[in-house]
Every structure is written in structure tokens, then in C-alpha cells.
Amino acid sequence: xxxxxxxxxxxxxxxxxxxxxxxxxxxxxxxxxxxxxxxxxxxxxxxxxxxxxxxxxxxxxxxxxxxxxxxxxxxxxxxxxxxxxxxxxxxxxxxxxxxxxxxxxxxxxxxxxxxxxxxxxxxxxxxxxxxxxxxxxxxxxxxxxxxxxxxxxxxxxxxxxxxxxxxxxxxxxxxxxxxxxxxxxxxxxxxxxxxxxxxxxxxxxxxxxxxxxxxxxxxxxxxxxxxxxxxxxxxxxxxxxxxxxxxxxxxxxxxxxxxxxxxxxxxxxxxxxxxxxxxxxxxxxxxxxxxxxxxxxxxxxxxxxxxxxxxxxx
Length: 314
Hints:
By secondary structure, this protein is α+β, with helices and mostly antiparallel strands.
């Protein structure tokens, strides 16, 4: 399994919300920072997108899609200079999941919001706060299709809804991440940039294939087919962290998954991940997670909907 697929397999959708928006005439809506990742597709008409911290408003037209990967306020409007109303003022009156704003309905947007949990930091670090996929591309057509299927699933009580929604969320996420990986000139250090580099990506794939191994920088440099010093420098430039720090963080990602997903003993988890003792594992876990494995497991019983604070970020 490639690293992106493996990370996604550990990334359950903890919550999802679908809504549509019809608007026309002069209109402008302010939205609060979204909880989770927000996908949107313009089905008809056009609008302006303004995102907190992004200098220029972004024009969007039918067929375009965009993803918001940060907790930042944003606005949609027919003209970014218009005074805006708050989103809750119109969405509280939504009928069958569709809100209306303005004096006509020439504009139509479908949107989905997904909460992926604490593991998502590994994927989204390095992404811009907003990613726009222009209409006419294969990626945009897939996102449009997935959002429309999502609308159908959430509007129709059918057997298997939950698993279909989860897979649609993953499909949309993979498409956006593929677009990011295909971009030329992407330079912000992060996990996605690292796995897109053939040499560094090969080392990361080896780590994922055997996380319990006592990896050294020399081992990983050999897999990347470069010198130890060149590998260490290039890994830090691409991933934003040192190679062995990445090994530790990936082990903790797996440990968090095991602690949440099953009742395996902490000692057995430590052994599975290559630690010589439970105490060595607990020390490493506490360093990154700021709590002991047992405390983390207990906390997850009550706070599964609340992600940790970016502990896998560079």
C-alpha cells in the first residue's frame, strides 16, 4: 500500500455535513471558520470567494470546485464589496438542505464539510488555505460527481449511507491531494511534498512498510540511493522534520490508531512498533502526545470528535 493510501486508511470521517446554496441578484454571505475540511462545487452561475488571510478575492464559475483546508473565515458573494449577512441567518431557514439568498436563484453551490480527526494534520500541512480546481478538468468532474452523490446519500435514508459518505469524502480528498502533488513548484515543506519526491518518497514507503525496524539515517539514505548527509538535508527540506523524527511520529500515528481502535495492551502495542519496553514507548508517546498512552485511550472515549493539536505537523 502506498503511503497516501495507508494514511487515508487510518483516517475515518468523524462527521459530515452537506448543504446547498441558491442565490441571485446582489448577495454576500460571511461564513465562520469551518470545523474540518470543506469541499464546494459551483453547479450554476458564478461568485467571488474571499478567504481570511488570502489577499485577493477569487472568481469562481460553474464547474469550478474549491477546498478549504484551514479554520479560516470566508465569504461568498456576487460582489466582494457588498455588505454581507451571516451564514446562520439564511441556513437556519434552509429547506431540504438548500439555503437561499438574494432576489433570484441563478447561482447554485453544493458543499460538503468533513471532520477527519487529529490524523488529518499529516495530510493538510503544506496545503494552501484554499485550493481551487477549475472546471473542465477531470479532477473537477470527479469532485462534482462525488458531491452530487453525497447530496443524494444525505437526502435519502438508504442502507449503507454512512460507509458511502465516508468513501465519497475520501474520493474527494484524494482528488484534491493528487492535484496538489501534480503542481509544479510546490515548495512548502510538508508530508505531501516529501512523498512526491522519488527518493524521499521511497524512504517514507520503507518506513511505513516496517515501522518497527530500528531505522538509522544511513539505512534510509541507502534506500534513497544518496549519501547520508544529502539524504538528511533533503528529507528536512521536503518534510520539514528530520528522518528519525518522522519515524517516531509515524509510530505515534499508528499507536494512536491502535489505542482508539482496539483493546490491545499498551505493552503489545509497544512491541508491535519496535520499542524494547513499555516504558520506552510510553516516554516517546508522552513526548509527542503530551499525555501517557493510557490517558490518551481514556480521553478518546469521551472526546473522539475533538482533534489533537497538530502533533504530526512539522
